[in-house]
Amino acid sequence: MAAHLIETGDALMNRIKASAKLIAFITLFIIPGFFFGMALLDDSSSSEEEPLLGKIAQSDLPTAINISKTGSKSSTPLVVSDSGGNAHVIWLEGIGGKRTVRYNTNKSGAWGSGQVVSHDIKIGGSGPWPDFAIDSANRLHYVLTAVSSFPNYEIFYKQYTDGTWLSSQNISQTAVIGSGGSACPTIGIGPTNNNCYVVWYDDFNAPDQWHLYFTCKQSGKWSNSVSLPVGGGTYTPEIDVDGNGWAHLIWIKRRRTSSTVLYSSNSNPTDPNKWTNPITISGQTNEDWCEPDVAVDDQGNVFVVWMQNNSGNHEIYFRKKSGGSWGSIQNISKTSSASKLPRIAVDRSTGNAYAVWQERAGGKWQIYMNYSAGDAWSTAGALTKNSSDSINPDVYVDKSGEIHIVYADNAVGGYNIWYLSTSEVGGVPVVLYPPLNVHMNTVLENDGNAKKNIIRWKKNPDNNNESIKEYKIYRKKASQGVSAYKVRAKVSKGTSRFDDTGLSKSYKYSYVLTTVNNDGLESDFSNEASEPLVFPPVSLAVKSSLDSTKTKKKNVISWKKNSHNGKNVVKKYKVYRKAENSGTFAAVSTVEGSQDSYTDNDLSTKKKFVYRVTATDKHNRECEPSLSTFEDYVFPPIDLNLKTILNEGLFFSEKMNRLRWKKSPLNDPVNVVKYVIYRKKASENNSSFKPYFVTEGKEFEFWDRSLPQDEKYSYVLTAVCHNDAESKFSGTRTESAQ
Question: DSSP for 187-198?
Answer without folding.
Answer: EEE-TTT--EEE
